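Slide 14.
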Amino acid sequence: MDGVHDLGGKQGYGPIDVHEPVEPFHSDWEARAWALSKGFGGGAPDITIDWWRHVRETTIPADYLTRPYLDSWLETDMTTLVDSKVCTIEELATGKSATPPIGKAVSYSVADVLAANRANATKFDRPTEVEPRFAVGDRIVADQDASTGHTRLPSYVRGRVGKIHELNGSHLFADAVAEGIEADEHLYTVAFDAKDLWPEAADSKDVVFLDLWESYLEQG
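Slide 15: predicted structure.
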């Protein structure tokens, strides 16, 4: 969807700080927020990662731009838990449970968690007999229309010309999965010349590569 989260290629937000400390967390609460998110899978058990992202993208702009990153994660996690009736706002506010548990508490060591993460990596590719519409080298134009829901098509390439760089097979289509529909489409790596994206890059030889689904693209 078009929203404040789609900051790629936007001006006016100041320079990116590339000198952050090497520590994974800036403070103890960030580590706890990350652990909570990972502890229950990043949101309610009946949602997908794409719906989680859609929920986060509906945060009001002032909140989205000023809330610390992992605090934004935690806000999204709690919103999905309330929406799925895993807990209530009152329980979150008081820190006291008043609803039946959805399962038994399980204790894991750090080693257990790391091993589980390695063993349970989610795969989003899907087999298909549908032939891809495009081939490597084809000239394409990215869709101009904005999505009313979650989308992985950034605004700065909409309506811009690119070229198919690589075919990646068929993958779950994030826009549909966010709506609870398990659909897949061919996924392509598309190359865009920076000079075709931003006027100030007219003399640049840089190229931007994006992985984009087939329905985002038209023949150029």
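Speaker note: DSSP finds seven helices and six strands in the chain.
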